[in-house]
Give the backbone structure.
Amino acid sequence: MRKRIHVFYSGRVQGVGFRITAEEHAQEYGVVGWVRNLRDGQVELVAEAEEAALQQLLQAIRTGPMKNFIHQVEISWSNATDTFDEFEIRYY
């Protein structure tokens, strides 16, 4: 079953290549959605895929080169809405 995650990453997650890393991992695992910087210094990620692919994405971000920059992760799970065709970096 396809799921959706809504994730907020905090720490030193801006200006370190976090969004491009998330995009590369999302494409690797066939995940669609988006990632963006927030004005408060967090990074927000919304993604949809099979639950296993989303778990792989979360694990890759947590254990890859970004792991030292992440201090806190807030994850909400829900059913997919199938509103995305690709994964992209968004700008505010």
The chain has a mean pLDDT of 97. The helical segments are 18-28, 51-63. The two ends are 31 Å apart (CA to CA).
